[in-house]
């Protein structure tokens, strides 16, 4: 049995509660500021040519392959399932109300601007982010982070930079694949169920006409930033594991919560700005 | 210690080694390692040995005193500059530690490929030659989990001696206990010293078999208050 002594605080209960809220707010704000400075540093380092040395390129190619190529099947299947949901909900109800002409704007707003970036963020986290968490979660406890530092290898350049850029580019690629597979599936299904009668070209034309110029810029940019943030969240959470007492099993849920928050936060910020 | 700080590869002047595990005293360290010399330092506690390595390699700042590598105090460098300067240091340590996302071969070559623009074939040829010296037919190409411990220890030796580092720091208990590596280590150290490199071997015991064939210029023991010069019995 362990006896615990409680520190006596003479302040009244409301003041103690306020102090506790204040302490949590200050701690989380400083953590957020630290993360933002980390994200900015990685972005600046990525712009420096000398940062892209041989081993960094090799890591970048490996991670990009993992994110963009190995997640392809998952993304296509997700796109097909989302396409099916889109038909059963959006297109079906538009057909029921006789407003199939609104299919373009509905798809643009629902799919391109909102759904695809969030889904891609979740796919990237699930497929590659968890692997990064576990991989980098062992760096400090197993001692190889110190080994890299001894060899003069900057962990920011060798571990974080290639992952951040590969996740960002991979997210853009996966978003394109997800969008195409979703739209193709939803059209074929709607056509097969005779919910729409026009050709695939007319369908594509309706979607493109509903898109504004910013729809060609903001959603891709959103996907890139989401991928970048997921990578940084996973890297910082993984590298933040100091020793074996911090269970590896707790690292993945922690990383998931942080990544999900980052995805939703980036999505909201883009919606507000654009 | 006659060597002047400017001439030394590694120089510790009045360095305080605090936060020791089994000693309440703060040891004061003074050490000069000129080019081409070998120093053997007995540090019985592994925690203290790791602290000493961190100080020598600029991974940690001393509470007092200064640590100079190639004449320049680590404290005057930014973290980025410190990383860059460590390209001139070879480390034979943590023989059981290998990054999980790289093969043993990649891990041996990574520092060389990162810091120097040497063709990969040349680096592999140098590494293979060293691997043969340490009794391996070549460099292990698999991951850490699929490589026997015996090969990992030897690959770690290759990792430390690869290239032409100015300073080679040896510190590993597995290596201390390996009598098989005594002769290859002595040969590798001798070749490095002939090239002008300096070797600092931090060992758990000066009587260790692994270091018995090494010709040392200086030998010390870390006591409660600092480094004590000792004479090695051979």
TrEMBL record, chain A:
InterPro entries listed in its UniProt record: Permease_MalE (IPR030802)
User: Per the record's keyword annotation, is Membrane included, yes or no?
Assistant: yes
Lineage, please?
Bacteria, Pseudomonadati, Pseudomonadota, Alphaproteobacteria, Hyphomicrobiales
Q: Where are the transmembrane segments?
A: 21-47, 67-95, 102-125, 156-180, 187-204, 216-239, 251-270
Protein's organism = Reyranella soli
Q: What is this protein identified as?
A: ABC transporter permease
The answer to whether keyword Transmembrane helix applies is yes
The organism's superkingdom is given as Bacteria
The record's Gene Ontology cellular component field reads:
ATP-binding cassette (ABC) transporter complex
Molecular function terms from GO: phospholipid transporter activity
Q: Which UniProt keywords apply?
A: Membrane, Transmembrane, Transmembrane helix
Automatic annotation (TrEMBL), chain B:
Full protein name = ABC transporter ATP-binding protein
Species name: Reyranella soli
Q: Which Gene3D superfamilies match?
A: P-loop containing nucleotide triphosphate hydrolases
Tell me the InterPro entries matching this sequence.
Answer: P-loop_NTPase
């Amino acid at each position: 049995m362990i006896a615990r002594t409680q520190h006596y605080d003479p302040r009244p209960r409301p003041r103690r509660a306020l102090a506790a809220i204040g302490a949590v707010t200050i701690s989380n704000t400083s953590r957020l500021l630290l993360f933002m400075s980390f994200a900015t540093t990685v972005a600046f380092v990525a712009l420096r040519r000398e940062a892209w040395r041989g081993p960094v390129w090799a890591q970048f190619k490996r991670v990009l392959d993992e994110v963009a190529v190995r997640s392809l099947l998952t993304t296509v299947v997700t796109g097909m399932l989302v396409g099916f949901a889109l038909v059963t909900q959006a297109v079906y109800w538009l057909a029921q109300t006789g407003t199939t002409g609104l299919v373009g704007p509905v798809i643009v707003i629902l799919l391109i601007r909102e759904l695809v970036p969030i889904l891609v963020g979740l796919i990237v986290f699930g497929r590659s982010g968890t692997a990064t968490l576990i991989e980098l979660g062992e760096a400090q406890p197993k001692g190889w982070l110190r080994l890299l530092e001894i060899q003069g290898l900057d962990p920011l350049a060798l571990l974080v930079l290639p992952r951040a850029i590969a996740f960002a580019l991979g997210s853009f690629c996966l978003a394109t694949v997800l969008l195409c597979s979703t739209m193709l599936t939803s059209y074929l299904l709607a056509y097969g169920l005779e919910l729409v009668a026009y050709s695939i070209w007319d369908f594509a034309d309706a979607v493109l006409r509903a898109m504004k110029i910013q729809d060609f810029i903001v959603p891709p940019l959103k996907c890139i930033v989401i991928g970048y943030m997921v990578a940084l969240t996973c890297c910082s959470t993984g590298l933040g594991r100091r020793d074996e007492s911090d269970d590896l099993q707790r690292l993945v849920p922690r990383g998931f919560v942080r990544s999900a928050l980052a995805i939703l936060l980036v999505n909201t910020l883009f919606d507000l700005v654009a | 210690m006659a060597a002047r700080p400017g001439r030394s590869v590694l120089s510790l002047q009045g360095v305080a080694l605090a936060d020791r595990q089994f000693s309440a005293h703060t040891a004061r360290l003074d050490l000069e390692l000129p080019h081409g010399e070998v120093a053997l330092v007995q540090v019985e506690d592994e925690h203290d040995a790791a602290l000493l390595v961190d100080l020598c390699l600029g991974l940690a700042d001393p509470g007092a005193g200064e640590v100079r590598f190639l004449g320049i105090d680590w404290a005057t460098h930014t973290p980025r500059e410190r990383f860059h300067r460590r390209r001139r240091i070879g480390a034979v340590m943590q023989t059981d530690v290998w990054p999980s996302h790289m093969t043993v071969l990649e891990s041996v070559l990574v520092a060389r490929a990162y810091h120097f623009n040497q063709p990969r074939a040349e680096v592999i040829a140098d590494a293979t030659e060293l691997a043969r010296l340490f009794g391996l037919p070549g460099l292990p190409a698999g991951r850490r989990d699929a490589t026997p411990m015996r090969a990992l220890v030897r690959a770690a030796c290759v990792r430390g001696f690869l290239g032409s580092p100015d300073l080679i720091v040896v510190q590993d208990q597995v290596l201390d206990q390996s009598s098989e590596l005594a002769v290859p280590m002595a040969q590798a150290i001798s070749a490095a010293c002939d090239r002008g490199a300096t070797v600092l071997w931090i060992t758990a015991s000066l009587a260790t078999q692994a270091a018995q064939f090494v010709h040392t210029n200086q030998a010390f023991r870390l006591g409660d208050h600092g480094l004590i010069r000792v004479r090695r019995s051979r």
